Amino acid sequence: MKSISELTEKKPALAWILFFVTIGVVFLLGLLASSIIERRSEALFVNTPKTVIRDGEVRNEKWGENYPREFQSYYGTADTTFRSKYGGNATVDMLEEIPEMVVLWAGYLFSRDYKQGRGHFYAIQDINNTLRTGAPMTADAGPQPTTCWTCKSPDVPRMMKEEGITQYFNKKVAEGANYLTFPWDKGMTVEEMEEYYDGVEFSDWTHSLSKAPMLKAQHPDYEVAQHGIHAQRGVACADCHMPYQSEGGVKFTNHKMQSPLNNIAASCQVCHREETQTLVQNVYDRQDKVLEARHELEKTLVRAHVEAKKAWDLGATEPQMKDILKGIRRAQWRWDYVAATHGGSFHAPLECARIVAAGVSIALDTRLKLARLLSSLGFNEEVPYPDLSSKGKAQEFIGLDMKKSHEEKDVFLKEIVPSWKAAAAERESKLN
Ligand code: HEC
Ligand code: HEC
Prior knowledge:
There is one protein chain. The chain is mostly helical and 432 residues long. The protein has a domain at 89-234 and 275-429: Up-down Bundle (Butyryl-CoA Dehydrogenase, subunit A, domain 3), CATH 1.20.140. Helices cover 56% and strands 3% of the residues. It has helices at 4-10, 12-45, 60-66, 68-74, 94-97, 100-104, 123-129, 147-152, 156-163, 165-168, 190-199, 221-225, 229-232, 237-241, 276-313, 318-340, 344-347, 349-376, 391-397, 402-415, 417-429; strands spanning 205-206, 213-214, 244-247, 250-253. The chain has a two-stranded antiparallel ribbon. A two-stranded antiparallel ribbon has the order 3-4. A hairpin with a 2-residue loop joins strand 3 (244-247) and strand 4. Helix 1 crosses helix 2 (12-45). The longest helix has 38 residues, at 276-313. It binds heme C (2 copies). Residues 84, 86-88, 221-222, 225, 230, 235, 237, 239-241, 259-261, 283, 342-343, 346-347 line the site of one heme C.
């Protein structure tokens, strides 16, 4: 083998080529080093606050100054175009999809309006818009406790700070104001939470047909998810719903909180090698199966409510109805728990199926008792199943005056909401 000097002696051009190649390589290495250093320093300074965020800061933009990437991505929640088979960020009228829900919630505001949530961007707008919050024309009016606002509005910490937390939840100021309570004293399963509610004799409302003392599940997503394999393997909610994203040398969580099915590459495929189609199908399979069973429970519960109403109409007494009403409460609590955990049929399909199965069993047992009672009251026929072919028909069946609800809401949106907005703008203009 010849040495380099021998080679270049014969072909001097080779020496020049070598020279320029070396310069090129050094130049590229230099670029790489400078890019690494730049990204490192970018990453180093990314968490250095640019402004001091005051205690109780309500303006999103102020937070955005210190967390620009998170803030920009948060605006992604304004997008309402994605619809998966059961989820997504489009407005879906759930009562129209499943009119049985109207009957299950008779006597409770959910029977008037229940839609699939859009993104966080719309939280305030939609809490004003929903018929569930009614049309409060004065500060102390309104059918709901302030509890819903507590999670939805960034302005609540300011109010709590100004008024004091006990005053914010003061029942004397706003009737029905309720301290936000997690029903976890006995444990975090559906049965343990029920035990807690039973223990304090709590009910959210009395059913207008069956007169059963009902419970409403509120966002049991976290509790249910704990029963699933992902939680048990340490996968966090954010891993799927707010996956990491890189920008230059900076890694941040994407604050477009959404259905992971709209971003399979960044959520599932970080861990799973399967094709997008397969993963989507895995999710739909689990959802289909749980929802199929859940729908059976919905229909059985509707029957139990109308049969209980029939029993009252025929003169049943409270002692005769006691066990039956308890059964309806218990079965529907299980239904609601699974229905309200929107991602539960994927997060923890077995747990959801188990709960629905228990609900069906309790509901059927209750209907047996009802059949016996109805028979003892001289009624031996089938109580007709109502026409639940649309939301409107179902609402008519339970006797709702929806026209009035909408009219009142329109007045509230036209007269009250603009004054709230003006007051907020005025208040915030005084902040620096
Ligand atoms: C951070 C990692 C991680 C992410 C992200 C992730 N998974 Fe998983 N997934 C796991 C682990 C770990 C298991 C359990 C497998 C095991 O331990 O054998 C699992 C199990 C599963 C299973 C089987 C569950 C069962 O019923 O037995 C399915 C289906 C699945 N994942 C789908 C998904 C989908 C769809 C997404 C995105 C929405 C996703 N995974 C996101 C880590 C992940
Ligand atoms: C392994 C990935 C994964 C993890 C971890 C996970 N989710 Fe989900 N989540 C999903 C999938 C998939 C869906 C179904 C989305 C759909 O139907 O479009 C979903 C749906 C939801 C929904 C309904 C959203 C919609 O678009 O309808 C909520 C709310 C939710 N999850 C909350 C949570 C919470 C809270 C946690 C943590 C306790 C969590 N998720 C953990 C994958 C995950």
